Amino acid sequence: MTAAKMLAEARKDLGLVGRPNHITREYAKAHGNEYLDAPWCDMSVTHWAHRSDNTAAVLPQGDRAYTVTHALDGRALGRWHAGTADNIRRFAQPGAIVFFDWGGSDSIGNIDHVGVVERNLGDGRVQTIEGNTGDACKRRVRGPSVIAGFWNPDYSKQEDDMPLTDADAKKVAKEVLASLTQEVGKDLWAARQGIFKPGSKLDFKTFMRQVWAYGKDGYAQSRAIRAELGALNAAVKTLAEALAQRDQAIDADALVERIRQEISQVTIRLSTAPADDEARTSQG
């Protein structure tokens, strides 16, 4: 991550003419088709920053196509210099992001254009590389009459130091979700049961929805089974008491306990069918 790499990328585009071009297409792919034919001076700076691994230094708040906002990024970092001859001579370094106002002011709000300083000429002027100057990428020599200001990126800044933007966070989330997406194998239990089609893609969200659905169904079925067993237990007790009244030799409590022991040996199997299907039991 150096100014030299930033300038090397900028030099590759010297001679680029017209739009849409590879710079506007790249920006439009990330931010919308309205940028395909838009002014592309700051898109060029964004492109060169990405290509030279200088994103963190040159784009501290993310991609820029609007020059005023990009200038404000530099001012927020405390790196802004007004475009006076003295400031240009003393502080403009190769790789500086330089902003222009064709009206001749030093006001950020009046900025019309942007480029990158290639060389400080030492007399209050700089040699620049600019995209979208005459709808082309060219070298220019500029002075204080049109330079509104500039700022020197911290080219020692590493990519990890860059704040995570909303777009970055969405991209990371998308990549994480993609990494959790798996193909359903034919030997998978869910495939054998017909829950998922073999060879289909199972993403994490679908998987969790399915787990929740089956957990919900299983809970509903278990409640139904417990209710049925409770009713059965009450019926058995009533029957035992009735038999005991007819035959004094029958111990009702012992009979109920024996029946309970028999029931405890019954294996309960929960169906994988929806919750409104009848729960099934089978004796093991």
Protein model, in words:
By secondary structure, the chain is an alpha+beta fold. It folds into two domains: 3-151, endopeptidase fold (from Nostoc punctiforme) (Alpha-Beta Complex); 183-283, no CATH class. 44% of the residues lie in helices and 15% in strands. The chain has helices spanning 3-12, 22-31, 41-51, 55-58, 67-76, 85-91, 166-179, 189-192, 204-246, 252-264, and strands at residues 80-82, 97-100, 113-120, 126-130, 138-142, 147-151, 182-183, 201-202, 266-269, 280-283. The strands form three sheets. A six-stranded antiparallel sheet has the order 1-6-2-3-4-5, with helices on both faces. It has a two-stranded antiparallel sheet with strand order 7-8. α1 crosses α3 (41-51), α2 (22-31) crosses α3 (41-51) and α9 packs antiparallel against α10. The chain is rod-shaped and about 120 Å long. 25% of the residues are buried.
Keywords:
about 280 residues, alpha+beta, endopeptidase fold (from Nostoc punctiforme), 2 domains, two-stranded antiparallel ribbon, 10 helices, rod-shaped
Counting DSSP H or I runs of 4 or more residues, the number of helices is 10
Order of helices and strands: HHHHHEHEEEEEHEHEHHEE
The number of distinct β-strands equals 10
Could you report the average pLDDT, rounded to the nearest whole number? 83
Radius of gyration: 37 Å
Which class best fits the helix and strand makeup?
Answer: alpha+beta
Termini separation: 70 Å
Q: What's the architecture of the largest domain, going by CATH?
A: Alpha-Beta Complex
CATH topology of the largest domain: endopeptidase fold (from Nostoc punctiforme)
